[in-house]
Amino acid sequence: MRRLEGKVALVTGAARGIGEAIARVFAAEGAQVILSDIRDAEGQAAAKAIGANASYCHLDVRVELDWKRVMVQILLDHGQLDVLVNNAGVTGFEDGMRLHDPEHATLEDWHAVHRTNLDGVFLGCRQAIRAMREQGRGSIINISSRSGLVGIPAAAAYASSKAAVRNHSKTVALYCAEQGLAIRCNSIHPAAILTPMWEPMLGRGPEREANMRACVHDTPMQRFGKPEEVAALALLLASDEAAYMTGTELNIDGGILAGSAAMPAMEA
């Protein structure tokens, strides 16, 4: 039997990148997967490419009514929700590089990042608990970041929002246990994963390769991670194999958080 056979999963921000990779592996492991995003054309194309186990719906994670509508539809169509992956997120640099340090970031930009990264996770967790309560079990997986564990001077709002996701995941885990529910909540903390989110920072010109090397120069494994490597952790947390894991944070960072960077010796 495939690891998610008979389960129904909702993945936010699934039109591309990590979310699309998670949706793809969930479907391959037997789940009925609902991909959601605000990039409707890309999301529909991704669901079609995944196949019969996948469908797409529009969901702006910042909008409470969107969450309610999507959850009602999932329960009408499938009768249950077993897994929610809160993956949708923004860096604040989607429209180009701008000041996001603690001194110069605008309150408007600060709020914009938190509305997606934190408010979206709060709303998703709340709706998932309510949807899963009747069956008494389920898995909520929140995609945080290495930036939620350390300070990021040039991306204060992003780091703050991801730190809050880390903490809220633990709160949700404890709340569900307190309620006598086998609804687990865990967070995944990727570092530099090569997704479209990085494109504004990497550029497309001759400087791209140099920018890529600079972004991973302090990573002991000296490379970007891959979306499918994050998807493998999400699969574990979604499966019954992780039935005793809740309130846990899993780091996938090429060794950055292990300590001082271990740089490979340069060739002569």
Automatic annotation (TrEMBL):
Signal sequence segment: none
Enzyme class: oxidoreductase
Protein's recorded name: Glucose 1-dehydrogenase
Parts forming coiled coils: none
UniProt keywords, alphabetically: Oxidoreductase
Source organism of this protein record: Dyella lipolytica
Protein family: Belongs to the short-chain dehydrogenases/reductases (SDR) family.
InterPro entries assigned to the protein according to its UniProt record, in alphabetical order: NAD(P)-bd_dom_sf (IPR036291), SDR_fam (IPR002347)
Example GO molecular function: glucose 1-dehydrogenase [NAD(P)+] activity
Highest rank taxon of the organism: Bacteria
Pfam family of the protein (one): adh_short_C2
Entry's EC annotation: 1.1.1.47
